[in-house]
Design brief:
With 236 residues, the chain is α/β, with parallel strands linked by helices. It is built from 8 helices and 12 strands. It has a 5-stranded parallel sheet with strand order 2-1-3-4-5, with helices on both faces.
Length: 236
């Protein structure tokens, strides 16, 4: 019996044999396992049970794993590990860009899966992690970010951000006044196993700046530190 007996995993997999095997082994390790076989069931179970980790298959009936991931990431910060038979770089990048924390291609070893689940749980408990920030509301100079609701308002006006834009802004705010390298931003926002183009960070920073351009008085600025990364400064 593992040391994670109180942890709940939502296993979303429509192939019976794979689901039964994973459920058996995860239960043997001490996890409490809930199951879903369709995208709709996955959404309902995640909202109802608030699992500690979600194992999410990419190919699902009703709603794809990518769509489920996109919706859940707008509502909660629960770590999501995507499981799929697909192995193309595009599938991996899309999954990570819409909010998945990690990605495994079938077939995979049980030991590696358990190691990655443990890593996701540890990250969620680290100071400054999304698990801790879930109830945090930060408000200053007419700007407000609600990390639990994943909403941003400026002078009372709602600002719609994509999931990774929100995660990036939240990270920069938590580290205001500090320069964050692209590598740090990728590890904290996309996950340490992301092996896409580091310029993804530059693109998302540009999108953030464009969305804030319409506000004349903004209580912070995002500065490019050439050769290093980015820094968010709160303005007096």
């Amino acid at each position: 019996m593992g040391q994670t007996a109180a942890r709940r995993i939502l296993l979303v997999e429509d192939e019976d044999a794979i689901r039964r095997t994973l459920r058996y082994n995860l239960t043997r390790e001490g996890y409490i396992v809930s199951e879903a076989t369709t995208g709709s069931e996955a959404l309902a179970s995640a909202r109802r049970e608030k699992p500690d980790v979600i194992l999410l298959d990419l190919m699902l009936p009703e709603l794809s794993g990518l769509e489920v991931c996109r919706i859940l990431r707008q509502e909660m910060s629960t770590p999501i590990l995507m499981l799929t038979a697909k192995g193309t770089e595009l599938d991996k990048v899309v999954g990570l860009q819409i909010g998945a924390d990690d990605y495994m291609t079938k077939p995979f070893s049980l030991n590696e899966l358990l190691a990655r689940i443990s890593a996701l749980l540890r990250r969620a408990e680290m100071p400054g992690s999304s698990k801790r920030e879930i109830t945090e509301v930060e408000e200053f100079g007419g700007f407000r970010i609600d990390r639990a609701a994943r909403t941003v308002t400026v002078d009372g006006a709602d600002l719609r951000l994509a999931p990774k834009e929100f995660d990036l802004l939240s990270l920069l705010l938590r580290n205001s006044g500090r320069v964050l390298s692209r590598q740090t931003i990728i590890a904290e926002t996309w996950g340490s196993r992301f092996n896409g183009d580091p310029k993804t960070v530059d693109v998302h920073v540009r999108w953030l700046r464009e969305k804030f351009e319409k506000f004349e008085q903004l209580p912070f600025r995002i500065t490019t530190v050439f050769g290093v990364g980015y820094r968010l400064d709160k303005l007096p």
